[in-house]
Amino acid sequence: MSVLTILSRSSVRRAFSPFLTRGYAAKDSITERKPGASAKDTSAAEEQTLSSCPPGTVLDGLNYLKGQPAVIALPDEEYPPWLWDLLKPKVYEDDGPGGKAEKKRLRKENQQRIKDRNFMKTQ
Questions:
Q1: CA dist 62 to 65, 73, 87, Å?
Q2: How far apart are CA 2 and CA 116, in angstroms?
Q3: In which region does residue 120 sit, left (phi positive, over 0), alpha (psi from -120 to 50) or beta (all else)?
Q4: What is the rounded distance in angstroms from the CA atom of residue 100 to the CA atom of residue 95?
């Protein structure tokens, strides 16, 4: 009989949880705020940048092919403009009863009602 069949999966996860968790990357000295910089200077810089990392940052975990060079972040101007709109929520026009906006709203409400009902069953 193997050891894995004796131990439950949850007990193995608890025992090895420090090794299975992911950690945050170390902070770069470039991204840290300088003590002499004022709040106006940092807010103006934040308004100009669209991406979350400065150009030249090595993006670990993106190159999945062996023997390829590391992926390096480019300046925001080199990316296509549609890239910055991907995470914005879709806005549907209110086109009356039976329209797409109403169908999306009703579906979302129904899904939330089902989730709430299933949650109450577990209590």
A1: 9, 11, 19
A2: 41
A3: alpha
A4: 7
List the structure tokens of 30.
Answer: 């470039």
The answer to whether the pTM exceeds 0.70 is no
User: Which residues are 72's β-sheet partners?
Assistant: 58
The two tokens of residue 103 are 């169908």
What residues contact 50, with CB distance under 8 A and at least 6 apart?
76, 84
Residue with tokens 């579906």: 107
What are the tens digits of pLDDT across the range 47-64? 566 788 899 999 988 888
Residue 72's φ and ψ, nearest 5 degrees, are -115, 135
